[in-house]
Design goal:
The protein is an alpha/beta fold and 303 residues long. The protein has helices at 14-37, 78-90, 135-141, 145-157, 167-174, 218-231, 233-242, 261-302; strands spanning 39-41, 67-71, 94-99, 112-114, 117-118, 128-131, 160-164, 181-182, 198-199, 204-207, 210-213. Strand 10 (204-207) and strand 11 form a beta hairpin. Helix 4 packs across helix 5 (167-174) and helix 6 runs antiparallel to helix 7 (233-242). It is globular.
Length: 303
C-alpha cells in the first residue's frame, strides 16, 4: 500500500502525503471561506550569487526542508500567494505565513488568509523570503516601517530574496533590489527604476539570488523556477506535471504587447489613480534615501 507520490523524489513517501494533506486542508479552508467563513488557514507552521540545487546547508531542522517565509498583507492578491505556495508545499518546505499579528488578513477576493507566524517570531535565517503583490496592499506596505525593517533584516541573510507581481515594489522599498534586474506587473514595472532596480519585461527574472515574477499568474512560473534551483530540474518538472501546469489561454491578451490597444488603454485608465499612488510612493522612498545620504555626507564633512 503506497503512502502518496512525491513529485520531488519520484518515490512514494509518507512525507509527501503529509504535504498533500496540508494542501487539501488549505483548499478545504478556502472552500469553507467562500461558503461564508471567509478565513483560509495556511500550511503548518544577501548572498551575491545564485546557489545551485542543493548548494549550502538548508536551514530547517533536519537539513532537507527549505525554510520559507511568505509575507501576507492586507489587500494582497490571493493568487500571488497561492501559486508559489502550491509549488513550495510540494517541495516539502517548512512554510511560515508571516504578518504582524495572527489575525486573518483580507485579500483581493474576500477570502482571508490566517498568518502562521508573527514577524517577530519568524526564523532569522531563511532559504526563501517571498513577498506577494496586490497593488493597493503593496503601496501601503511600502510605507510601513515595521514590515520594511523585517524584510530588510531577513533579506540580508536569506538564500533567495523573491517576489511576485507588485511585491517587487515592496522589496524595492527596502533597498534589496538596488543594482539587481527585476520585474513586476507591467503597469508598474518602470517604477522599479526609482527604487534602484533595473526593470526587465521577462516573466521571471533571476539575478544572482534575487528572483522576481511578473503579474499574478507568473507566480507559478516563478515557483517552478525556484523549485528547479533548490530541488533540481527533474523535481520541478514532476511538480509541474502533478499540478498539470500547461497554460493555453483562450486569448492572447496577457501582455500589453499582445493585447488589443483598446484593452490596454482601458485597463491603464481604470488603474491610473492607484498607479499614480505607486509612483508617488516609490519616489517618496527614493527621496528618503537621498535625504539620509545627504545627511550622512553632511555629517562626514563636519567631522
Amino acid at each position: 500500500m503506497t503512502s502518496g507520490f512525491d513529485p520531488v523524489s519520484g518515490a512514494s513517501r509518507r512525507g509527501f502525503l503529509s504535504g498533500a494533506m496540508a494542501t487539501a486542508a488549505f483548499d478545504a479552508s478556502a472552500g469553507a471561506a467562500q461558503a461564508g467563513q471567509g478565513n483560509v488557514a495556511g500550511p503548518a507552521p544577501a548572498t551575491p550569487s545564485v546557489p545551485g540545487p542543493g548548494a549550502g546547508a538548508q536551514r530547517a531542522a533536519g537539513g532537507d526542508r527549505p525554510v520559507i517565509a511568505m509575507l501576507v498583507h492586507p489587500k494582497m492578491v490571493l493568487q500571488d500567494l497561492v501559486g508559489p505556495l502550491t509549488v513550495f508545499n510540494m517541495m516539502r518546505a517548512d512554510i511560515h505565513l508571516v504578518w504582524k499579528t495572527l489575525d486573518p488578513v483580507a485579500t483581493d477576493v474576500g477570502i482571508a488568509v490566517t498568518p502562521t507566524t508573527r514577524l517577530a517570531d519568524c526564523p532569522a535565517d531563511l532559504d526563501i523570503l517571498f513577498v506577494p503583490g496586490g497593488l493597493d496592499g503593496s503601496v501601503a506596505v511600502m510605507a510601513d516601517a515595521e514590515v520594511l525593517a523585517f524584510l530588510a533584516d531577513r533579506g540580508a541573510r536569506a538564500r533567495y530574496v523573491t517576489s511576485d507581481c507588485t511585491g517587487s515594489l515592496v522589496l524595492g522599498a527596502t533597498g534589496l533590489l538596488r543594482g539587481y534586474r527585476a520585474t513586476s506587473h507591467w503597469t508598474v514595472r518602470d517604477e522599479l527604476a526609482l527604487l534602484g532596480a533595473i526593470p526587465s519585461a521577462d516573466r521571471v527574472v533571476v539575478d544572482r539570488n534575487r528572483l522576481t515574477g511578473g503579474g499574478v499568474t507568473a507566480g507559478i512560473d516563478f515557483g517552478l523556477t525556484l523549485a528547479a534551483l533548490i530541488r533540481g530540474e527533474e523535481a520541478a518538472q514532476r511538480i509541474q506535471l502533478v499540478i498539470e501546469y500547461a497554460p493555453a489561454p483562450p486569448f492572447h491578451a496577457g501582455t500589453p504587447e499582445t493585447a488589443p490597444p483598446a484593452i490596454v488603454q482601458a485597463v491603464s485608465a481604470a488603474r491610473r489613480p492607484t498607479l499614480l499612488r505607486a509612483r508617488e510612493q516609490a519616489a517618496a522612498v527614493a527621496a528618503g534615501w537621498a535625504d539620509v545620504a545627504g545627511s550622512a555626507g553632511g555629517t562626514a564633512a563636519l567631522q
